[in-house]
Amino acid sequence: MIPLYNLNGHPVGHERSQQQVRAAINVGARTAGWSVQDVEVGKILAINFIRAHVVAVDITYTAKHYSINYANSMHMKVYCSEQDKFLGRTKVTGFESCANGIQPTYIHGTYQIWIDELNASIVAALSLN
Length: 129
Prior knowledge:
Layout (H helix, E strand, L loop, with lengths): L1 E2 L3 E5 L6 H14 L3 E6 L2 E8 L2 E9 L3 E10 L7 H6 L7 E2 L9 E2 L2 H19 L1
Antiparallel strand pairs: 1-8, 2-6, 3-4, 4-5, 5-6, 6-7
């Protein structure tokens, strides 16, 4: 188990329009094996299905920055607090979210690997524009 990892305010790099950033995020996410859905201008929902595991992230973006933040997951053994981790209380079935919209404190270690791969693929797609 690792602390939940969100990527906030990652710079886009060269000057681009918000539309170009959206397109690069879509290409990068799909290349990394994620399904994507435009939620609204400036926000994409990306979902990764690997075996029985599911991870959903919100990707928010502007012309200058983007962020990748945990939305929910399935079978990722999340802990909603330090106390849950200490007591070994996890949610392992259904979509996992904590009460009152609080993000989990800890999650399965593979989550960060998938987020790092997603980010690397987005960076590569941005470098093509």
